[in-house]
Structures
1.
Amino acid sequence: MSLIENERTKLLAIPLNNVAVATIATALIAPTASVLYAGEQTGFWPARAILGVAWLAGVVCLHVFAHIVLGRLKP
């Protein structure tokens, strides 16, 4: 594999990982902070916990896929 192909592989993996990080921020951290700081007003729904776990699974899948893409790099 040439250096150009290696760089293209990296360019594919970087956005995948960035989407995973952004998803954590918007789907997990923000709702958790909302419940912690305004819990009485918003209430805690079991559906939020289920959705949080689903989003976390999606984030892990994106991150693993980025690792798989990077696994295609050759010396």
2.
Amino acid sequence: MDEKQTELQAVWNSIRDLQQKIWSLKLDIANLERELYATEFRKSIQEKKQELQVLENIENEKKTNIVNSMLQIGLKSVEFVNQKFTLKKSPWSLKINDEELIPQEFKKEKVEIIIDKKAIKEKISNGEDIAGCEIVYSHNLVITPK
């Protein structure tokens, strides 16, 4: 290879290195923008959920005030121009104030069954058949800069 070709090769190599750095930076920027968007979107959703919770709490408090007022006055219903409030006794519900005070006879133990996939994979890899299982392979696309 003569001197000119060596020079051209060196220039081309430096251009290729620059292209790789540019590609890598563009990828980093795209990833950061995606993370920022997701973060801002999550933040917006959380803010809306908090706002919704505040408004629902206010609504429930006002409904409770109406129910209490109607009970104090002894009204079963109140009619307005476009709506009617009616008190209806709801079915009973149980409120637990302190779980520790509840007798043991009313407590049940919850058992959770989990599957040990690693152990099953090992057994199948060693040639054993495990009913209801199989090893599957998938393809993942890996993109690397040149």
3.
Amino acid sequence: MARILAAAVIVQAIGLAALGGWALERNRSTDEAAYRTLSTPTASVPGATIRFVPSPELSVGQLQRLLADNELRVVNANEGGTIFALAPTAPAYTPTSTSEAIARLRATAGVLLAEPIARDPDAR
């Protein structure tokens, strides 16, 4: 009788461990998409090279002029329209051109954030 009870306890332990592992894995896979930051790689937007956050005080006209002066265009925005992905309008844009554009954007009043969008998740 003791052997049967011991076998039942072992079978229950294995079953609970398997169920716990399944529940943890299921929970882990749904949590990954629930939280995102600015540094989290996004789905690739064709041509986007700069992540840009303007100040709320920056008018639409000023924003249009700033983008035109730097030969940039908006190719994507977050749901609230506060974070933009910018792409060059000129086809001959290079990484050096992107760095220079970021430096000019950062030096402009009304720009809260201008950073390169990493193509490689390991590149920072």
4.
Amino acid sequence: MTSAPRHLPRFYGTPRAFTLIELLVVMCIILILVAITLPVINLVRSRMDSAQCLSQLRQIGTAMGAYMNDHEGYFPGPLSFEQTATYKPGQPGSLAALLESYLGTANSVAPDGTSRYSPVFVCPAAARKLKGPTQPSYIVSFLQSPESGQCVWGDVTQNQSPLRNSALANWSDASSGGAPLSLPETWAIQDGDQNYVAEVSMYKGPVNDLLPTQAHEDHWNDLFFDFHAASRSALINISSPTSPTPAGSGSSH
């Protein structure tokens, strides 16, 4: 005679729900992990942005060098103070327009079918903070020659022609008491911001469209007049070039 099968309890095999305490513990662990990893992620992203920004400035420098080789050593210009990544072919004052064939952006047609967009002129860190590609990201250094009083790039508003690279010399750093600067120490293009240009007497372009603070938090990226790109954490307020010191005067810098 077989015995009747036993009936198992109804709750057997059903999953047990988490208690409120257990859920709170899991949520706390997740929040702690996020708090630990988020700064690391932001740091990695910031370094990647800065590296890409430096790469873009090097591309601009290479394009400028090629342009100058084709134009008897003259800088691209004349330029306007504000440089944007969106431009029209042949647009006066636009560095992106002058360098489009050297940067390979001639076929980068914007949605309107007329203007073009060169992403190399937008700092990737600033791109997330700016309203759009029409806003300025990189700014150009409007230094003047002591002999002619003209800007390096010329000035499209005053119909001034750009200078040759050989005409650049004798810059000084007003932020360090007038110490002399060589071309590798003198920035030509940088990722500007409102705080910086407020202390730089030579910048005369639009301010409200710039980022309020540094795109890279603790440094600026620059393209220098010898066409190398590097990061810089200290302020360089470049003053107008001084007259060369006569040879044999005994003066030393």
